[in-house]
Amino acid sequence: MAVLGIPLSPKVGSSAIFVIKLPEPKHSGEVSVEEAIKSRRSVRNFTNEPITIEELSQLLWAAQGITGKSRGRAAPSAGATYPLELYAVVEKVSGLDPGIYHYLPKENALECLMNGNISRALSAGALNQPSVRDAAVNLVFSAVYERTTGRYGDRGIRYVHIDVGHASGNVYLQCQSLGLGTVAVGAFDDENIKEALKLSKEETALYIMPVGHF
Ligand SMILES: Cc1cc2nc3c(=O)[nH]c(=O)nc-3n(C[C@H](O)[C@H](O)[C@H](O)COP(=O)(O)O)c2cc1C
């Protein structure tokens, strides 16, 4: 794992502490798409076992990774406007200190925005849901609506919500393939989550996906 001294293309307005290159994601697996769809269930109770940085990399790639030759991504996006930003709130990931990391799809890297154990604060903002408190990592999707409404007007709001559904569906299926559990969490206080993650004013938190062994 390479720790890069200079942020590659950090979040606008962010003060990244450092940037970590992620392991390359795999493009094949043991579980068929049909098996993953058939066996997928939301999981809310997790063990203490950490996940690996390879598994985290795989999940981030499934959600928002670059898959095309130019800038195509794993999940579709209305007009390729890509309104979503993705964060990993790390609690128990081998090879990564706890903290808030922002995914850089183009670089397949994470920029560390803050060190520390944030999951309890995140859970407090999400109606104290134990799944968020106990996860090895919480993936948090936010959206910059303007990227999509700038092109499509008010209809872009609908498109952003559809975008996040596509991305989170990929996370569910990738978890299934890795033998990990997740649940899509939409019940949270917007302002609390925005504050816990120190999101920019253009960003709105949309979805939390706690991930872990079960
Ligand atoms: C938009 C949305 C919001 C959800 N929010 C929560 C939530 O806040 N907490 C939770 O435990 N589950 C949440 N869920 C998960 C649903 O409860 C779950 O998908 C449903 O019970 C069906 O179970 P299954 O996913 O195992 O098929 C949410 C699901 C969706 C699609």
Account of the 3D structure:
- By secondary structure, the protein is α+β, with helices and mostly antiparallel strands.
- It has one domain (3-212): NADH Oxidase (3-Layer(aba) Sandwich), CATH 3.40.109.
- Helix content is 33%, strand content 22%.
- It has seven helices and ten strands.
- It has helices at residues 33-39, 53-64, 119-125, 130-134, 146-152, 155-178, 190-197; strands spanning 3-4, 18-21, 51-52, 84-90, 93-94, 99-104, 109-115, 137-143, 181-182, 204-212.
- The strands form two sheets. An eight-stranded antiparallel β-sheet has the order 1-2-7-6-4-8-10-9, with helices on both faces.
- Helix 2 (53-64) runs antiparallel to helix 6 (155-178).
- The radius of gyration is 16 Å and the shape is globular.
- The chain starts with a strand and ends with a strand.
- The model is unreliable at 1-7 (pLDDT under 50).
- Flavin mononucleotide (FMN) binds at residues 41-42, 44, 129, 131, 183-187.
